[in-house]
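Work Package 4 report. The design task specified in the project plan requires that, given a folded chain encoded as structure tokens, an amino acid be chosen for each position. We show below one input record used in the internal validation round.
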């Protein structure tokens, strides 16, 4: 987690502030290891500006609020390049992150690809004052996606199968994908694939889907948990050389706000969150009823005994 509700999710979350003034010491999730039950001040939760990440921020916020922790869920912020400085300066305290792309953002020379290797490497490069909590098994990776017609015409199952024809294809994706190490530079280096042109669109949103569907672009960056891939008959090309590293969902938090209680709540979410859950949650967001992200978050938390 995704496309058609990006704007709606942004608008809804922009207007939402979750607050709770519950006390600390008697909370059942406090593990008694010495950390205070309540962090000082509210935990300010941010997210990237695409529905899945916005929804994850809601899940974090509602679960913490249910345990008496004061939180504020802030409006989505375009991309990692835009929100990460807020984590460094303290204007943000918590975001749902993805291990592989966060590692590459922090260490452009990182080579880890497998889930545990990526997570271990990430723990070693997270700046002082920030902490990654336990990673979930849920994974949402970037993928090079083409239409079924393009896949059949070029007999392409993998990104490498495009190499001979990349010079004829226009690629679409978010602006930052053009320069990220595992974006266009990585595809060029790993697969020898240099596209004819790059079109800056949105973060796996309706602009990208529409451009791929109408032929404005012939290949695009979409997320593997995006239900519009299947809905439109698109093909997510295989990545046998692992240009895209493991991308497990993980809470990234201000260390000062990571009390024992907060860690236990967030780690409990990670223990329950699976890739299939992300697929199901994204499908709900894009369903005909178009439910609010906060409603979808509450239903998932309730179903999993987390509130």
């Amino acid at each position: 987690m995704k496309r058609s509700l990006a704007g709606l999710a942004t608008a809804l979350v922009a207007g939402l502030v979750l607050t709770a003034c519950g006390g600390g010491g008697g909370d059942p999730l406090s593990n008694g290891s010495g950390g205070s039950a309540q962090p000082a001040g509210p935990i300010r939760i941010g997210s990237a500006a695409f529905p899945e990440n916005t929804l994850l921020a809601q899940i974090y916020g509602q679960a913490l609020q249910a345990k008496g922790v004061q939180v504020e869920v802030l409006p989505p912020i375009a991309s990692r390049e835009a929100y990460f400085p807020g984590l460094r300066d303290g204007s943000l305290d918590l975001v749902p992150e993805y291990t592989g792309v966060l590692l590459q953002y922090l260490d452009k020379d990182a080579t880890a690809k497998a889930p545990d290797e990526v997570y271990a490497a990430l723990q070693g490069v997270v700046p002082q004052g920030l902490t990654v909590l336990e990673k979930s098994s849920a994974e949402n990776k970037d993928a090079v996606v083409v239409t079924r017609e393009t896949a059949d015409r070029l007999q392409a199952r993998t990104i490498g199968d495009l190499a001979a024809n990349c010079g004829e294809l226009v690629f679409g994706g978010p602006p930052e994908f053009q320069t990220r190490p595992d974006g266009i530079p990585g595809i060029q280096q790993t697969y020898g694939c240099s596209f004819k042109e790059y079109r800056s669109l949105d973060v796996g949103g309706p602009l990208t889907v529409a451009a791929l569907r109408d032929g404005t672009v012939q290949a695009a960056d979409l997320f593997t948990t995006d239900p519009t891939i299947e809905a439109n008959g698109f093909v997510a090309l295989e990545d046998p050389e692992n240009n895209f590293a493991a991308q497990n969902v993980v809470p990234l938090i201000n260390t000062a706000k990571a009390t024992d209680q907060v860690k236990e709540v967030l780690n409990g979410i990670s223990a329950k969150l699976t890739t299939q859950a992300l697929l199901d949650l994204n499908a709900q967001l894009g369903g005909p009823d178009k439910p609010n992200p906060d409603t979808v978050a509450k239903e998932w938390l309730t179903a999993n005994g987390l509130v």
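Confidence is low (pLDDT under 50) at residues 1-35. Validation will be extended to a larger panel in the next phase.
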